[in-house]
Amino acid sequence: MDSTSHDTLLIIDFGSQVTQLIARRLRELNVYCEIHPYQTVTMEHVRAIAPKAIVFSGGPDSVTREGSPRAPQEIFEYGVPILGICYGQQVMMQQLGGRVVSGEGTAEFGRAYVQPSDARLDLLQGWFLDGTGREQVWMSHGDHVDALAPGFEVFGTSPGAPFAITADPARQFYAVQFHPEVHHTPNGATLYENFVRLAGFKGDWTMGAYREEAVARIRDQIGDSHVICALSGGVDSSVAAALIHEAVGDQLTCVFVDHGLLRLNEAEEVVGMFRDHMNLQVIHAQEQELFLGKLDGVSDPETKRKIIGGLFIDVFQKYADGIDGAEFLAQGTLYPDVIESVSFSGGPSVTIKSHHNVGGLPEKMGLKLVEPLRELFKDEVRALGRELGLPASFIGRHPFPGPGLAIRCPGEITRQKLDILRKADAVYIDQIRRHGLYDEIWQAFVAILPVRTVGVMGDGRTYDYACALRAVTSVDGMTADYYPFSHDFLGETATRIINEVKGINRVTYDITSKPPGTIEWE
Ligand code: XMP
Questions:
Q1: Residue 34: CB partners within 8 Å, gap ≥ 6?
Q2: Cβ(372) to ligand 1 under 6 A?
Q3: Cis peptide before 450 (omega within 30 of 0)
Q4: Quick one: which atom of ligand 1 is closest to the CA of 474?
Q5: Among the options 6, 144, 179, 245, which is catalytic?
Q6: Per-residue pLDDT tens for 48-72?
């Protein structure tokens, strides 16, 4: 996004775990904001972004340590309102001539209550009104401010933070010790709302406006060339395809790779919607034989993932080669993938699973990238999808992994097992929908287990597969908890699966959270 086309707020990231939540709260207020790691923020950079206000995030370091992160000193002369959160508050104090101390008695973690001081502050409009005269906030700090910088006053205190809310109202510098962006500061959004109002934001970041601008930008970028897009049926690639189609029409060709590991009727639904209802050019690549052939006899999860990932690239390339003049590849990259995070550990993290994606494609194929969702968070992508007329049922779909049912079929994959799995999964999802639970659940699916168990149906003995139902709640898939279905629901679902799906005679429910489990079984 061209930062000049909207009011922009700059968030300087000092490495807090929750910096993205600051951006979420601001975007909810229709404020366009960008997160930049403190290492990259020079005054030249700030002037190029031309922010109307700045937020300093929290961070894990201590400003009392020599060499710890700072903001450029000149930023305080730039003339826009600044809000410092936690470490950001301490950076402000330290750089503006106050004092921060660490050591015994300075730390405070978890829930705390802030009391107002006598003086009034515009930033606190709507606070301290519920009769208790105090506000619950979330604290997570090791150090605290010990002496205010010149010009600052105290507007709120907590038992562990005598300077919980401070400000220099004349310069519109605000600095708080707690985290207003987290859920556990129930009235925190009001502070952000007040801050952007005081900074004069118009709230001009809406999906309707974004759609128009994005369309113009895509037209500009693509010109007369051709774009190809790997359509997975997931929300991101679907919204990206719909948006690019609106911009350049038939200059877009989508390839839907059918690897034989899709859910019941999935290929028909996705291809049908995009090709028949939305008039996109969609190639339905029927490559089931290829994928299932190569997976024959393979049971190791990482080997499965690598085979599928490699074949996917080969297949996509094969179809793309047949499209004349393709110069661009569309990808549904989202803002959380783009934000360069501040890393303090520096070490490589462990690979738990090699994720299937098409990240390596552009270099391999010599294509330029179109990434029209790069500035958006997931819920903004959904809002844009609605704006573009994608059906609500499509936009609210649970995520589905690239390797598909392969990773829900531990052990060897056979066509028979896939067939049983597809039917069981369809019954399970139907149950969830019938009970009105689909939208409460982040993701739900069946895994078919590599064991057969003995049962009795009618007067006969059965020896069929066992399956596991999985349903989790999550915000981003990074952590998850199992969904607490009622026993009645589970009993009814087990009965339906066993009655309606030949090949399964035992149903279990997976109650593992993530961590220690993962959402998928492989
Ligand atoms: P795990 O199993 O790692 O999954 O807890 C977290 C989320 O990621 C999805 N997932 C994938 N998505 N390609 C994808 O596009 C993959 O290879 C892949 N593996 C897991 C999973 O469904 C869950 O939503």
A1: 3, 8, 9, 10, 11, 49
A2: no
A3: no
A4: 24
A5: 179
A6: 999 999 999 999 999 999 999 999 9
